[in-house]
Each structure stands twice: as structure tokens, then as C-alpha cells.
Design a protein that fits this description.
alpha+beta; 3 helices; elongated
Amino acid sequence: MALALVLFMPIMIGAVDLGRAYFAYDVLVHAVAEGARQGSFDSSTTNIASAVQTAAGDLTIATADIAVTCYSGSSTTTKACTAMVTGDSVKVGATVVFVPLTPMIAKILTGGTLTLGSIAQRTFQ
């Protein structure tokens, strides 16, 4: 019984940490999608970044970790977001560094952390 507990507990604790990482990724995906939604009707990159940070809730995303790129029409030609017109598109991306609580998971990851990222793109209305 004691041997089973010794083998079972690290697996359970590691599973909890991986669950935390997945939850952080899910929140990040939602936050970036919310930023792209904001960018579909607001050409202010400051407002878009603020929408991402607000939607992230407890997941702290620095403004420097949010990228907003605006494109002319459906092409890959970038343009100033302030000059967007109907039919242009906005791409929002963000990254966040996940730090596991358990040393076992931290040893598996390079540098003891996991960088999570997400990108969303929408058409400007």
C-alpha cells in the first residue's frame, strides 16, 4: 500500500500541474480571441491590448507580450491600425510564461517553464 502511494502521488500531483497549464492556455486563447473581437471594430492598439489583459483575468499578460498586426484586406501587406477600413483584418497574438508548482514537472521543461502562445485574426467591420 505504501509503495503504491509513493508511485501514485507524484503522478497525481504532476497531473494537477499539467491541468493548470491547460487552464492557463485556455484562458490565453479566450483573451486573444477577445482582443481580436475588439480589434474588429476598434483600431486602437491600446484598446485591443487592454481587452486582452482584461479578458485574461488572473493570468497576467504584459503589454509587451501582446502583438497587434493590421493587414490591408485579406492580403499579408501590413498597414497602420489607425488607417484600417472595412474589409481589412487584424491579427492579435499573445504569450505568457507558465511556471509549474511541482519540481518534477519543472525538471521536464527546458528552463523550468513553459511558454504558451495564441493567435487570432478577424476582419475589421
